[in-house]
Amino acid sequence: MSNSKSDIEQAEIGWSDGLVMVCNRCCDGESAERIKSELKAKSKEELGKKVRVITTSCLGICPENKIAIVKASKNSSETFEGYSVSADSTVDELFNKILK
Question: Which of 3, 35, 52, 84 could make an SS bond with 15 (beta carbons 3.0 to 4.6 A apart)?
């Protein structure tokens, strides 16, 4: 057993309300990247830097021909919310359903 100090430290995060993860393995990666980019821009415009939007590898909840999105929220009674969306979903539809 070592007496050395642990290298694990808690880091401060730059977003205060939540994290939105868009699966880029579902459907096609191009659509997932479009959704992420548009949702990120809309989120920043409407909410500032309170929510982070990223792409991720497989979330394991994807129905066929849909894209999985998971929102992890710090300010909700539901810590995690999962969604499956069409590749042609608009940013306004997604923002209103997931982030409002």
Answer: 52
The strand ranges marked E within 10-79 are 18-23, 51-56, 67-73
- CB burial of 50-76 (b: ≥16 within 10 Å; e: otherwise) equals bbbbebbeebeebeeebbbbbbbbeee
pTM over 0.85? The answer is no
CA–CA distance from 41 to each of 1, 2, 5, 37, 82 (Å)? 48, 47, 41, 6, 21
> CA distances (Å), 27 to each of 13, 21, 65, 88, in order?
30, 15, 5, 11
pLDDT single digits (tens) 22-42:
998 877 778 889 999 999 999
Q: Cα–Cα distance between 81 and 17 in angstroms, integer?
A: 14
- What is the β-pairing status of strands 51-56 and 67-73? unpaired
Tokens representing residue 97 in the block = 């359903």
